[in-house]
Amino acid sequence: MDEKVGHAGSEAAIREIIEGWAAAVRRRDYPAILQNHSPDIVMFDVPPPLRSEGLEAYKKTWDLFFSWTDRPIPFDFIDLTITADEHVAFAFATLNCAEPGPDGGQKPLKFRLTIGLRNIGGCWTITHEHHSVPAAE
Amino acid sequence: MDEKVGHAGSEAAIREIIEGWAAAVRRRDYPAILQNHSPDIVMFDVPPPLRSEGLEAYKKTWDLFFSWTDRPIPFDFIDLTITADEHVAFAFATLNCAEPGPDGGQKPLKFRLTIGLRNIGGCWTITHEHHSVPAAE
């Protein structure tokens, strides 16, 4: 496949936004977590509900994520693939994270992430996130 | 948000491809399921594995899906949102599906779907799919 189809300037800007967002999650910095998100974001998160719509509902998914421990939670990209045009882009990734362990500690958890973005008035804006783990066997 | 940012011609073509793909799933038509997919597709499916890469691995996820019953399995959009530029697009949706029930029948299952596409040589091609259900509570 011709990798030159991509839009290199867009890809670099989006990589910076997504890596900055993950760094904000690691330091529990809500303003920085939310700063590139659309008011209309549609979020499919790892735990229920099935679907969260709007920035307030999106923020609540992070309240839940941060609620289970006061310790730092890993949130690190194993890989990140970005496909971008001038106005629309998507990215997908696998990340190392953690979930509550049986001893009250942390148990390693890998999850999958897909992000949809639009360039609105020159700013790349996240309009969709999909976080998941495979269903239990 | 200015909905005119979207690319109406692209959106109509993509809607036709995605709805055609879902119809192909409902009739277990492998050639039609696979016909708009990239050889390099990266699939995050509902059951394990965490990640499937390439068309052969993608096909295997459908072997697994179709293996649990000979009866028709619902695969119907509740909603479908498409965001498209000239060369890159993503779509997300919620669907009605089914899983094996305790009595050997079907139990209704809603799942979330995100699709990433590229326009390659004038043909919209699916390069990424992410299917999931929320993790068990």
Description:
The structure is a homodimer of 137-residue chains. By secondary structure, the first copy, chain A, is of the alpha+beta class. Chain A has one domain: Nuclear Transport Factor 2, Chain: A (Roll). Helix content of chain A is 27%, strand content 42%. Chain A has three helices and six strands; from the N terminus they run ααββαββββ. Chain A has a six-stranded mixed β-sheet with strand order 2-1-6-5-4-3, covered by helices on one side. In chain A, a hairpin with a 7-residue loop joins strand 1 and strand 2. The radius of gyration of chain A is 15 Å and the shape is globular. The N terminus of chain A is likely disordered.
Provide the fold topology.
2 copies of one chain form a homodimer.
Chain A lengths: L7 H19 L3 H5 L2 E8 L7 E2 L1 H13 L8 E9 L3 E13 L5 E15 L2 E10 L5
Task: Name the CATH architecture of chain A.
Answer: Roll
Helix-strand makeup class of chain A: alpha+beta
Strand order within the widest beta sheet of chain A = 2-1-6-5-4-3
* Largest sheet, strands/sense/barrel of chain A: 6 strands, mixed
Order of helices and strands of chain A: HHEEHEEEE
Helix count, DSSP H or I runs of 4 or more residues of chain A: 3
DSSP strand (E) fraction of chain A? 35-45%
CATH topology of chain A: Nuclear Transport Factor 2, Chain: A
List keywords for this structure.
homodimer, 137 residues, alpha+beta, Nuclear Transport Factor 2, Chain: A, six-stranded mixed β-sheet, 3 helices, 6 strands, 27% helix, globular
